[in-house]
Amino acid sequence: MLTKTLLRSDAAVLVKITELIGHEQTIEEYLEELKNTIRSDGVLKKPIVVDEKHNVIIDGHHRLEALKRLRCQKIPVYFINYESQMVKIESWRDTEPITKDVVIRSALEGKKLPPKTTRHMVRASTHWVHISRIQKEINIPLEELK
Q1: Domain at 60, CATH number
Q2: Parallel, antiparallel, or unpaired for β 48-51 and 74-80?
Q3: Which CA distances in Å does 18 have to 8, 65, 77, 82, 126?
Q4: What is the DSSP string of the chain?
Q5: Crossing angle, helix 28-41 and helix 61-69, to 10 degrees?
Q6: For residue 146, how many other CB atoms are within 10 A of its CB?
Q7: Global confidence as pTM
Q8: What is the pLDDT of residues 31-80, one digit of tens each?
Q9: Burial letters for 54-64: b for 16+ Cβ neighbours within 10 Å, e otherwise?
Q10: Tens digits of per-residue pLDDT, 106-130?
Q11: N or C, where is the chain less crowded by C-beta within 10 Å?
């Protein structure tokens, strides 16, 4: 079970897209497919995860970019304490070691990492799970995000 040391709140909050900073580039083909799915569904199913200290996106770059293309102004966010020991980072690429400091620095300096560089994991009782597991389905209508 995740504790308050990680999540600011159990509920996602709506945030202006312009207030958030990405650390990874997106994959155009996946982005376009996701945008079309969200438009077709008429809802955003899950919030994104953002570092509460710097407003850096930890998970959800494609969702954010898809909403931009759909002319949305807001996105639901789970803010986390990225410095928490309950969050760890791994690289999808064996040849590229990655750290939390690299993620934050890349975002703040505007030097985005290649797509799918980082894999964030969170502690769930006795084992680690992908950070997407903390993102509950919320199905928020697109009209509420415009």
Answers
A1: 3.90.1530.10
A2: parallel
A3: 20, 11, 13, 20, 37
A4: ---TTTBS-SS-EEEEGGG-B-SB---HHHHHHHHHHHHHHTEE-S-EEEETTT-BEEE-HHHHHHHHHTT--EEEEEEE-TTSTTEEEEESSTT----HHHHHHHHHTT-PBPTT-EEEEEEETTEEEEGGGG-----EEGGGG-
A5: 60
A6: 11
A7: 0.92
A8: 999 999 999 999 999 999 999 999 999 999 999 999 999 999 999 999 99
A9: bebbbbbbbbb
A10: 999 999 999 989 999 999 888 999 9
A11: N
Q: What are the structure tokens assigned to 133, written together?
A: 């597991």
Domain of 37?
A: 13-135
Look up residue 81 and give its two tokens. Answer: 């304490």
> What residue has token string 């797509």?
115
